[in-house]
Amino acid sequence: MATKYLKMPNDESSSSSSSSSILIQVSETLPSLESVHDFLSSSSPGCGAVSVFVGITRNNFEGKVVTNLEYEGYTPMAIRELHAICCDARAMYPGVERLVAAHLLGDCPVGGASVVVGCNSPHRKEAMRCTEYLIDELKARVPIWKKEIYEGDEGSVWKENLEWREGRRRRVMAKENHV
Amino acid sequence: MATKYLKMPNDESSSSSSSSSILIQVSETLPSLESVHDFLSSSSPGCGAVSVFVGITRNNFEGKVVTNLEYEGYTPMAIRELHAICCDARAMYPGVERLVAAHLLGDCPVGGASVVVGCNSPHRKEAMRCTEYLIDELKARVPIWKKEIYEGDEGSVWKENLEWREGRRRRVMAKENHV
C-alpha cells in the first residue's frame, strides 16, 4: 500500500502525437486542485474550458453511518486502466487536449477526496461531457476496492469501487469481510 | 474597476434555510481552486461529489489571434444575477448544497482563468448537471462585457460576454469599439 505512482506517460495506445498530456496518479495522496488545474491549463492556449470532478467520502451508505473509507488496489493494473480510459476519452472527445485521472489509496475520512478527474478543451461542452465520461468509466472499470467502516456495531464491508453495468462485467473481483 | 466584492450571502430569494452556502465573487482576482474546493466540500458530510468548471482565455476567436481579454461589468448587478442563478440552480437541483460563481474583472491574458463555477451534491450526476447549468446561465445572463485584443492590426472589440438564446433577450447591452 505504500507504493506511490506518479505517471505522465506518452499516449502510447492512441494515435495522438501529443506527449505528457495525460496525468495519472494512484497513490496515498491526491494531487492538489491547483496542480491539476495548472496541468490542465498549461500548454493549451487554444483551450477555453477546464472541467474537474472530485469524489468525496460521504458519511452514509444505505442508511448506515460511514466513519471512514479505505481504498486498496492492484496499482499497476489501476494505472493501466486509467490510462486506457483517458485514451478512450480522447478518442470520443477529440477536442480534449489534456486529461487527469487520479485515485487515492489507503485511508479517506468523511469529507476527504478520494478521486479527481478532469480535462480541458477549446469549448466547454466537450470538457464537461468528457469529465463525466472519465468518472463514469473510472467507477465502472478501475480495479480499486473500498472498505466502508461503519459507526458502532455495524462493522465494515469491502466493496468493489465499481458500478458494473449490464453486459460489461469482464472481471470477477469479489472480496467481502465483516469484522 | 478597483472595487472588489466577496459575498457569501444568505440565500435570501430561495426557500432554503441554509446560510453561507453560496460563494459569489466579482473582482480583479478569482478565488483559488483550493479555496473553491474547500468551500464546496466543507460542512457537507452527506455530499460525495464536487464539480468545478473554469473558463480560460483562448488565443483565438473566429480566426483572429487574441492576445488578451479585458472584462468590465456593473458589479452590483453582476453579483445580483450570479446570486439569482445560484438560487435557480438550487431549485432545479435540490440535492445541491453549496455553490460557487466567480467572475474576473480587468485583464485576463491568454491561458488565464476568467470565471469559475461549481457545486457539491450527494451524487455526481446532479453536481455535474448543475455546474453545466451554472456556466450556461452565467454566459446567458450576467452583465459582463469582454474586450478581445487581437494581434497586429486587428485592433480590439468589446463584446457582451453573453450567449443570448432565442426568446431570452431581456436586456440591451451593446457596446462596440474598434481601436
TrEMBL record, chains A, B:
Keywords: Cytoplasm, Molybdenum cofactor biosynthesis, Transferase. It comes from the Eukaryota. GO terms for biological process: Mo-molybdopterin cofactor biosynthetic process. This is MOCS2B. It holds the Pfam family MoaE. CDD domains: MoaE (cd00756). One of its GO terms (molecular function) is transferase activity. The keyword Cytoplasm applies. Gene3D superfamilies: Molybdopterin biosynthesis MoaE subunit. PANTHER family: MOLYBDOPTERIN SYNTHASE RELATED. InterPro entries: MoaE_sf, Mopterin_biosynth_MoaE. It comes from Cyclostephanos tholiformis.
